[in-house]
Amino acid sequence: MGISGKTHLRGANLIGAKLQGADFQEADLVKTNLEGADLQGANLKKADLRGANLSDTHLLEGKGANLQEANLQEANLQGASLVKTNLEQANLEKANFQLANLHLANLKGANLKKANFQVANLEGANLQGTNLEEADLYGAGLQEANLQEANLRGANLYGADLHKAYLLRTDLEEANLKRANLTGVHDLSIEQASKVKTLYNAKLDEEILVPLKENYPSLFEKA
Q1: C-beta of residue 23 within 8 angstroms of C-beta of residue 44
Q2: What's the pTM?
Q3: Reduced to 3 states, what is the DSSP secondary structure of residue 106?
Q4: What is the pLDDT of residues 191-222, one digit of tens each?
């Protein structure tokens, strides 16, 4: 694809476009409509995609597309295929990832504040050091995800599957873990779990469930 970096396509209509391997590094793609576009292997490093529509796009294949440090604030990525995509340190505040597939994606250090990940697949994703404050992860699949040092303050994890997720120094203060699956998680301390909003009907291993119920019974009460 002959599109070069620093391209200005602000507000352009690229619905269903074939953009495999395109170079959009530092491109201006604000409010661009990329619904259903094929961006497999595309380079979108530091691209400005604020308010862009990337719903049902394909950004996977091989190592995945490069969106490192891209600005995707309030972008629509509903149902997008983002397997192995590099979103390290990207700005994804208030972005919509509902039903998106982020299996094995790299989101290390990304800003995901108030982002919508309802029923998204984040299995095995690298979320180390991410800001997920007040993010909506309702029913999200976070099996074996790396959430070490992530900020999940006030996040909604209702019904989320965190089986075997890594939670070392993860901030869970006021997080909603109602009906969440926390079996097999790594490095979840009683102190961390005691600060959540609720653990009503959550699944936990016995070694942490018993002391939590003994010392913080209100966490298991129906709100």
Answers
A1: no
A2: 0.93
A3: strand
A4: 999 999 999 999 999 999 999 999 999 999 98
